[in-house]
């Protein structure tokens, strides 16, 4: 299967390894318990040694943190808790010196309710131009439609209690997420203008691109019709609940926005990227990466496939096929800040439902099994053509914190569902850098989410000197990926007689992932290029243990 048709491999992002920094939890330089920009600068050498091409920073803007920064109060500045604009400039410059690009998070579906534009809209009253920047609607006595917030509860909030203005009786505003995140009105050209100026502001500062939050949600279906799910999304059977259908997802009008943005980016050269966060089918997602729109979209099918061979196969084939039609490369994503960490997901039976997060009273994962599988999957993934994402801590084999004390939880889902849905804090716990330092070297202040004692085992300094560590496995295999130019290759499936043993030939290397629970013997190979565990080789065959990923020749 050919992975690309649009053009050559000359654009860096087509093969890039992109490392997600979740700034709040990455590295704390001023010891206030929160990560910061200087913390990222201090760790650039670490990232360079790991072998990444780019950093994607989750939101770094001033924010009341109702949704860990995805509620932006000022799009043109840096959260004072994280640093200053000057420090951000320094981050860009220092990263570029090391040949590392910087992608930042753009949050265009909604702002913070504390943003001046929204405060002005509240102040200005019904039918004003200020109100037209957001989705205000009039509806007597009840919400304008039945939409539910993704964090729980209705997607509408009444205006009058906020303004104490009688003229606001029966007025509501829309928020697909928390009430503190009002949705912009993308029918309004002023909203377009605002975001064009935002793009230019950061492009002028030297950023290399943008990861577009909720890229499929900006435009809502005309007339805002009811959806099938209803106002309480978390009360619905998870099999019926889907993030991909609904009158607020994937409306045709979103594509005009990305065409407009592409034109802005092209003013800065054709190497600036737009990355879509759009939880859709591969065919629908591919429409976002047409030549005149975005560059990449996250392949979430890969992440959702978990330890299920058929699903992993499909998560490789379907996006390659769909993206091939539009000439875009595929991305490989195992984890991010919104889902249970891969190491933990793979430590459960595939049918385990962890969509609501995991807490102390839930079944706990088999950590050793999960880590072995995550390493196997990582080695296999690093051999695939296209671009790869690594979520901070993934390279340390860091597990989800499944025993986080409930009283420390901060995800709005936990609060908004009346403590029914635990949410995403378990994958956001601050990174352990040094085993023997306070807070494992994250910083000396109490961390915003508590780290468990066992995080010390995963600390970067312990792994640094250990050739058998997960960190050194990532370093070694990423280096080989680059040297062998596997990211520019193709996927040619090889049938080994067992569909639970994945095998792909890419540029003469046989990538194998043994998803069974027993060793498999592979014939006609003479050497091990890389592997996540000990592979025995001899007499022209290799024995690849269960849960192991290997590159053979
Ligand atoms: C997707 C982000 O990844 C997630 O963390 C956030 O809560 C929602 N979008 C809303 O911005």
Let me know the number of strands: 19
CATH level-4 homologous superfamily of the largest domain: Glycosidases
Helix content: 25-40%
Q: Quick one: overall form? A: globular
Low-confidence segments: 2-6
Q: How many domain regions?
A: 3
Major sheet size, sense and barrel closure: 8 strands, parallel
Based on CA atoms alone, the radius of gyration comes out at 23 Å
**With helices defined by DSSP (H or I, 4 residues minimum), what is the helix count?**
15
Small-molecule binders: 1-deoxynojirimycin
| Distance linking N and C termini | 20 Å
Proportion of beta-strand residues: 5-15%
At CATH level 2, the architecture of the largest domain is Alpha-Beta Barrel
Main sheet strand line-up: 9-8-7-3-2-1-11-10
Q: Output the structural class.
A: alpha/beta
Average pLDDT metric: 96
Question: Class of the largest domain in CATH?
Answer: Alpha Beta
Kindly identify the CATH topology of the largest domain: TIM Barrel
Summarize the structure.
25% of the residues lie in helices and 14% in strands. With 553 residues, it is of the alpha/beta class. The strands form four sheets. The chain has an eight-stranded parallel β-sheet with strand order 9-8-7-3-2-1-11-10.
């Amino acid at each position: 299967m050919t992975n690309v048709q649009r053009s050559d491999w000359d654009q860096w992002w087509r093969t890039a390894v992109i490392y997600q920094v979740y700034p709040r939890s990455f590295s704390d330089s001023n010891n206030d318990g929160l990560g910061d920009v200087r913390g990222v600068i201090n760790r650039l050498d670490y990232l360079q040694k790991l072998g990444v091409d780019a950093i994607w920073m989750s939101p770094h803007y001033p924010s009341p943190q109702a949704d860990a920064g995805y509620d932006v109060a000022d799009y043109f500045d840096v959260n004072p808790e994280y640093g200053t604009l000057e420090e951000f400039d320094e981050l860009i410059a220092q990263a570029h010196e090391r040949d590392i690009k910087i992608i930042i998070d753009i949050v265009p579906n909604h702002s913070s309710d504390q943003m001046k534009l929204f405060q002005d809209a509240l102040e200005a009253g019904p039918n004003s131009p200020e109100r037209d920047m957001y989705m205000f609607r009039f509806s007597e006595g009840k919400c304008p439609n039945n939409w539910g917030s993704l964090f729980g509860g209705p997607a509408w909030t009444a205006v009058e209690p906020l303004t104490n203005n009688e003229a606001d009786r029966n007025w509501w505003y829309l928020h697909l997420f928390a009430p503190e995140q009002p949705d912009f009105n993308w029918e309004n050209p002023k909203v377009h203008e605002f975001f064009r100026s935002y793009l230019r502001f950061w492009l002028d500062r030297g950023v290399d691109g943008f990861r577009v939050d909720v890229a499929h949600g900006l435009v809502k279906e005309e007339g805002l019709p009811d959806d099938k799910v209803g106002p309480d999304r978390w009360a619905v059977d998870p099999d019926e609940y889907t993030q991909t259908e609904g009158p607020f997802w994937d409306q045709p009008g979103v594509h005009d926005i990305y065409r407009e943005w592409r034109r802005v980016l092209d003013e800065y050269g054709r190497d600036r990227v737009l990355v879509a966060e759009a939880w859709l089918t591969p065919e629908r997602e591919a429409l976002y990466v047409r030549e005149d729109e975005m560059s990449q979209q996250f392949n979430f099918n890969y992440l959702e496939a978990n330890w299920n061979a058929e699903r992993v196969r499909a998560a490789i084939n379907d996006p390659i096929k769909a993206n091939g039609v539009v000439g875009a490369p595929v991305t490989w994503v195992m984890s991010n800040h919104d889902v249970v960490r891969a190491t933990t997901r793979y430590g459960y039976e595939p049918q385990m439902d962890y969509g609501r997060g995991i807490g102390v009273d839930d079944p706990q994962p088999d950590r050793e099994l999960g880590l072995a599988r995550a390493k196997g999957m990582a080695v296999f993934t690093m051999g695939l053509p296209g671009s790869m994402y690594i979520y901070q801590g993934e390279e340390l084999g860091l597990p989800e914190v499944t025993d986080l004390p409930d009283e420390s939880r901060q995800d709005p889902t936990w609060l908004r569902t009346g403590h029914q849905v635990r949410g995403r804090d378990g994958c956001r716990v601050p990174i352990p850098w040094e085993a023997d330092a306070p807070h494992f070297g994250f910083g000396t202040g109490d961390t915003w989410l508590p780290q468990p004692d066992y995080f010390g085992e995963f600390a970067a300094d312990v792994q640094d000197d250990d050739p058998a560590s997960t960190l050194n496995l990532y370093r070694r295999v990423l280096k080989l990926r680059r040297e062998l130019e596997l990211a520019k290759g193709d996927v040619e499936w090889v049938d080994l007689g067992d569909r639970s043993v994945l095998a792909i030939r890419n540029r003469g290397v046989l990538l194998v992932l043994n998803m069974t629970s027993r060793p498999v013997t592979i014939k006609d190979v003479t050497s091990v290029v890389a592997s996540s565990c000990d592979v025995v080789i001899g007499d022209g065959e290799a024995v690849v243990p269960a849960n192991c990923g290997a590159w053979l020749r």
